[in-house]
Design brief:
The chain folds into 2 domains: 4-78, no CATH class; 97-237, Aminopeptidase (3-Layer(aba) Sandwich), CATH 3.40.630.30. It is built from 6 helices and 9 strands, in the order αββββαβααβββαβα. The chain has helices at 4-14, 69-78, 105-122, 132-143, 200-214, 229-237, and strands at residues 21-27, 32-38, 45-49, 56-62, 97-101, 148-155, 158-169, 182-191, 220-222. The strands form 2 sheets. The chain has a 5-stranded mixed β-sheet with strand order 5-6-7-8-9. Strands 3-2-1-4 form a 4-stranded antiparallel β-sheet, covered by helices on one side. Strand 2 and strand 3 (45-49) form a beta hairpin. The termini are far apart.
Length: 252
């Protein structure tokens, strides 16, 4: 039965995964691991459970297009998203907040739900519905770019907040900017709804400042919607000031 159950789980999961997705199951005396890998990319879904079991390894490749959205949500909550070695220095029972520099596309895609969903609800004409599989691929692409950095906040080993940063330098590339113009842009920042009000956002900002100092950047920039009063108040308390206003005109 121990060997049949994993195969049943893999069969169900693989039925809903994209084409060319490889699933691997590993069971050992102290750990059960399920890894999902798309194409040649690193594993973006991985779950580890302590469980006594005999060694078993199997791999399934599906040639079916698309992910059914209801099962994408299931995967997001059932699989613990991390890349190998990411959690090696975290104590899941410490009860302390840990913020680490971590370019983990799957973790950021999972946490992005907390910032993307309100944006989509307010501006459905601008944003697509949240899609974990699609967004994980986007994060993997942008995190591979020079100057990209992910910060992830862990509470008791669970990812509860994040920031996506881009360290940008002019280096003479833009003729109209100072040659040494340099800054860090906060592309995204969010804290899970259940953990807001605990000072996690403030801790993330402290690490953003530290990242800037370590990399020689003396400016931090970000954008915020004009109608997002809570976010505007938070950033102002952290020392941000308005310096540029983007405007648009809708045409019929």
């Amino acid at each position: 039965m121990k060997k049949i159950l994993p195969l049943l789980i893999l069969s169900i999961i693989s039925h809903y995964l994209p084409a060319q997705t490889a699933l691997s199951f590993h069971a050992g005396p102290n750990q059960i691991q399920i890894v999902s890998k798309y194409g040649d990319n690193y594993p973006y879904a991985e779950t580890k459970l302590d469980a006594p079991a005999g060694l078993l390894t199997t791999s399934i490749k599906k040639r079916r297009t698309g992910i059914k959205k209801r099962f994408s949500r299931f995967l997001e909550h059932c699989l613990f998203f991390t890349t190998p070695g990411t959690m090696s220095d975290a104590d899941p029972h410490s009860g302390k907040l840990q913020i680490r520099q971590e370019n983990n596309a799957a973790v950021l895609a999972r946490l992005n739900r907390h910032v993307h969903t309100p944006h989509y609800e307010r501006h459905p004409d601008r944003y697509a519905p949240y899609d974990f599989g699609r967004f994980a691929g986007w994060y993997e692409t942008v995190l591979a770019k020079e100057g990209a950095c992910g910060l992830v906040a862990y509470l008791e080993g669970e990812p509860v907040g994040y920031a996506l940063l881009f360290h940008k330098k002019n280096n003479g590339a833009h003729a109209m900017l100072a040659e040494d113009y340099e800054y860090v842009h906060v592309e995204e920042m969010a804290v899970a709804a259940d953990h807001q009000g605990k000072g996690i956002g403030k801790q993330l900002m402290q690490h953003i400042r530290a990242f800037c100092r370590e990399n020689g950047a003396r400016r931090v920039q970000l954008s915020v919607w004009l109608d997002n009063e809570a976010a505007k108040s938070f950033y102002e308390r952290e020392g941000f000031e308005g310096y540029l206003l983007y405007m648009e005109m809708a045409l019929e």
